[in-house]
Amino acid sequence: MKMADKNSHSSGSISRKSLIFLFMVSTIVFIFSWFFVLRSTGHPQLIDYTSFTSSKNLATIDNGNPQSRNPNDVQPSMRDPLETTSDSSDSSDGSLEAALVVKDVASCAYNKIALKVFMYDLHPEFHFGLLDWKPEGGKVWPDIQTKIPDYPGGLNLQHSIEYWLTLDLLSSNFPNRNGARSAVRVFNSSEADVVFVPFFSSLSYNRYSKSKSPHKKSVNYLLQDKLVKFLTEQEEWKRSGGRDHVILAHHPNSMLDARMKLWPAMFILSDFGRYPPNIANVEKDVIAPYKHVIRTFIDDSSGYDDRPTLLYFQGAIYRKDGGFVRQELFYLLKDEKDVHFSFGSVQKDGVHSATKGMHASKFCLNIAGDTPSSNRLFDAIASHCVPVIISDEIELPYEDVLDYSEFCIFVRTSDAIKEKFLINLIRNISKDEWTRMWNKLKEIEGLYEFQYPSKENDAVQMIWQAVSRKVPAIRLKLHKSWRFSLTGTKRPSTIVPWSKSKHLFRELRVL
Q1: Exposure check for the chain: N or C terminus, fewer CB within 10 A?
Q2: How many helices and strands in the chain, by DSSP H and E?
């Protein structure tokens, strides 16, 4: 028995030692494995994107002449034009001048990369004909070097991006066109990055959405129907299934009848408020700014103490959907002595009144209405009045390259409607913090200016650059969809009628 007990005790001791040893080894291995994992994720390696870029897919603009880019050239064009360089101590020679040169070269090179755009020569009834321009001699486009058709004013202007983008493309090949540009028109669709559809859909909605007796269908509806038939018959659409097509639908109610049939295309929108996510989403579509209606504050030298109104809002107070918060805030803020919160419209003296009010205010409210976005945000930017955004579902232009928190205040709707929450928040923002945001607004206001001819990094060029950033994802989807096509040919995509295709959306969107 004693011998058995001794043997048992000895084997138990050996077993415990083995377990302890195994535990220690496992612990050491575990620690080292985490060390290597953290090390591998903590220092991302730079990738030379130039090795992936084909020269035939890029064009540079030099004095108005497109030319191919040598794929062996160094391309700092992947840099964001709004991105700042790191501290000069990070440069190889420690020279501040060298860092500034790199920054300048990167910025210039970025803006010389032109998005190549093929534009359909649609009948004038889809574009300038809606502006009462009368074509002569079978011409599709007006001679904009002689005279540019006028666009109607008032609220029509806020959704006029279709007009400015089309003018920019028409002028992109002019030999006397100076300055940088972000898009150039090509006349062979096989060379294009995207296909542009020049339908002035917002103007069509604003002017022709009501049917006139004895006709049961409006001109706007008939134009959309004709557009769908035209597009789906084109080889360009069949080749890509419409994925590389750019369609303008900036007014929330524009393209109401056609959007469900043209869903694979890239839409340029003001927001996603009236779109189901399988029709429009941030992955494939572009959010563009409104054209501001009020006058730009030129030579603004006003400071914190020169703007007597703390918080400003003038507009429709009783709205549908998410706009309920407007009336809630009206009752919370109407008795605050340095707050202007009133009903207003563009009628009569409305624009002049709003211009004067915003120019005299420190903060301007941008509250959700019938849809998440409104022109008021861009009026505030043009006024250098710090925007206070209360719209939980809002999507903002160029937000992938622009940090709005540097010049906007964001407040959740659930917090904004709490007693005294909003007014206390605004009153506690210091003069120095407001001044910093005010200065930032003056720096970035040009990004939201629509003009012809377009200028470097204005709204027109920023929208083209946003479209350009979508191109790699489009190509990925197209290349994957062509995997099993015959060599040298592309399988034509078929358009499934909307009534039969609802159940296919989820599957097709991954292609």
Answers
A1: N
A2: 16, 13
